[in-house]
Amino acid sequence: MTDTRTVPTLVVGLGCQRGCPVSTLRALLDQALQAHKIELHQIKALASIDLKRNEPGLIELAEQLGLQMMYFSSEQLAGYQTQLSHHSDIAFERTGCYGVAESAALALAEQLAQAPAKLLILRQKYAQATLALAGAA
Prior knowledge:
By secondary structure, the protein is α/β, with parallel strands linked by helices.
C-alpha cells in the first residue's frame, strides 16, 4: 500500500545584509536544518525580498544548492505580517516589511503548494543573515 499523504512543500526564506558571504548563509541553513532534522533535499526553493535580487551571496547559495531563488515585493510580503514570530522595525524601515525571511518563506510555500503555509522554523538570526522555513501541505 502506498502512502497517499502529500509531502509538504518546504521552502527557506532568507534575509541578509548587503555583502553577506555565501558561507554565512550556508552555515545558517545547515545549522537550522540539522537542528530540526530536515534533509537538504527536502527543500524545494529559496525566497527573499526583491531588494536582494542582485545579492551575490543569495545567488551563489541558490546555485550551490541547485535551487530556484524566488523574490517577492515588500507589498507581497506585508500580507504575512500577522503570521510573523518577530517584527523588526529596522527591517520595516529598510524594506517596507517587518520580516523578510519569515514572510518570504510563507509567500513562496503558499505559491508553490497553492495552500496555506505555516512557519516550521521561526526566524533564526546569525551574523548578517536571517532564515526561516515554511511548509504547506
